[in-house]
Design goal:
17 strands, Rossmann fold, homodimer, 2 domains, eight-stranded parallel beta sheet, ornithine cyclodeaminase, domain 1, alpha/beta, 10 helices
């Protein structure tokens, strides 16, 4: 039997925020318990087309499926009306290698699983009554991070900063369309945020230099550092990392390509000062937030097990609804 | 627009031996000219299921597509009536990353491009009037290697050796069904082949120790060494390699996983004694066979550019026939 082919729209229509949080949460536990097989990603760079393709594969021992994700970014696409991301995830049966489902998700599932990871991290690390959010960035991920947080925190104020004021406005229009009760406010200069009473700070930009100064981070804050996921990328002042309880998705991977890379390189912090991995906190091997005043940072680089978890979730849900398999 | 999905049977019906030889021949030239991007393959091993999956990607600079192949071997499949190989190739547009065609080929295209490589090598390295072939192995690849050679040589006698006499008989039935004029003969002991007057020797087994003794190889012989494509695999006595003009698909890859690995490891031969790559001979940078008496060996490990070439060929041919694209 041929694999099931699911298109982006069908996939997005199936997604439920709380369900995604649950499956992604479980994937971090599997990863930190050493149950994941995730070979080194394969990268192809197409210099002449400003394009890149990355193959990430993952399997959790004992699981029914393994997932191969082909993620791409072709930066000449948007001017000609195409999505820069054209990727797909493929689920294979682990017992036989038979391809069961091809998810033509064009990067959407990566966006969702990444935002869900931010929500899981905030659930374990931010103060329970967090009301005020600052989001740095106005792209897709900045939108989804906030949408997910709205599901689990009593958010009252959302502050937005982006390099382009126009994009910040579009961002607000998008969030307001979601019929939320929180107030939305654009910050013109990121320094202005230093005077705000914030609870959670989300950074979700492709920046290659620190955007968030350590002056911005106060007692009790939690930071979801999402953007830095490759060597060279950075959003936070290194002093933020040094002064915080740092929790990673994968410490080994963050040391190479997360925020952590910079504080390790500059020597401002040593690897053994990293508090732990999110999976260790979820599985109660380590305690999450210990008091109201702690500053916590979640360094997110993205794991193949998150791809596997969300692809598996979509496939199962589709089959349940259609009563197939 | 969604990618075109092609199933194994459709794909096989499209294949023409001479056309495949041409596209595979060109891929070797591209590779040896340094035009190929081929990242290190990604491997996942499923110990509990006796399974393995390998991701091989390739792009030739200036080309229209890149190819990602997901090849698998699940060795518990045959007893339950499933093919051990369940792989696919996916063609993406290089300019945009858009997936254009998913070829559900279950390993068949790998079989064909490998056999075509053998035919290309023999075309440049074997004596033109080669009439007598010995094929060591009775599997799929052993069948296809002979079918391809029949297209370009005036074959009169085919000698077959396999560990299982039953499989050798099945092999003969298969070849005889192809309505050929050559004689077919099973060799009971491989040593018997030492007394034969052979022109081309094909080895296509998963052996991990030398099957073919140096006594078997005579002046003027050409050997297609196909089976050894991973560390540990070996079909030829190392002395055969030492005494022959050795041509590889990729010298770097053969040194790691081809026949070459063993003669290099034992020190019987140095890397600089390798004559060259098939692509260099096709493109006339190096001469192929120089006289009737030379002994030549083609060490084949399989290249991503061959996958790209055959997938691209199938897709183009399908589109031409259906007048789409």
């Amino acid at each position: 039997m041929n694999p099931l082919i699911l298109e982006k729209e069908e996939i997005i229509n199936l997604l439920d925020f709380s369900e995604i949080i649950n499956v992604v949460e479980k994937s971090f536990v599997d990863f930190s318990a050493g149950k994941a097989l995730m070979p080194v990603p394969q990268d192809i760079i197409f210099e002449e087309f400003k394009g890149e393709t990355h193959v990430k594969s993952a399997y959790v021992k004992g699981g029914k499926y393994y997932c191969i994700k082909i993620a791409s970014g072709f930066y000449n696409n948007p001017p000609i009306g195409l999505n820069s991301s054209q990727g797909m995830m493929i689920l294979f049966e682990a017992k036989t290698g038979i391809p069961k489902c091809i998810l033509l998700e064009e990067g959407a599932l990566t966006d969702y699983r990444t935002a869900a990871a931010g929500a899981v991290a905030a659930k374990y690390l931010a103060n329970k009554d967090s009301e005020n959010i600052l989001v740095v960035g106005t792209g897709n991920q900045a939108k989804l991070q906030v949408e997910f947080l709205l599901k689990i925190f009593p958010i009252k104020n959302i502050f937005v900063w982006g390099r382009s004021e126009g994009k910040a406005r579009t961002y607000c229009d998008y969030i307001l369309n979601k019929q939320i009760s929180a107030n939305l406010q654009i910050i013109n200069k990121i320094e202005e945020a230093e005077n705000l009473d914030l609870d959670i700070i989300i950074t979700a930009t492709p920046s290659r230099m620190p955007l968030v100064s350590s002056k911005l981070i106060k007692k009790g804050n939690h930071v979801n550092a999402i953007g830095a996921d490759m060597p060279g990328k950075q959003e936070l002042d290194e002093r933020i990392i040094r002064n915080a309880k740092v929790v990673t998705d994968s410490t080994a991977q963050c040391a190479k390509s997360g925020e952590l890379q910079h504080s390790l390189k500059s020597g401002i912090m040593k690897l053994d000062k990293v508090y732990g991995e999110l999976g260790e906190i979820i599985s109660k091997k380590k305690i999450g937030r210990e008091n109201l005043d702690e500053i916590t940072v979640f360094d997110s680089t993205g794991l193949g097990v998150q791809d596997l978890a969300i692809a598996n979730y979509v496939f199962d849900k589709y089959c349940d609804m259609e009563k197939i398999k």
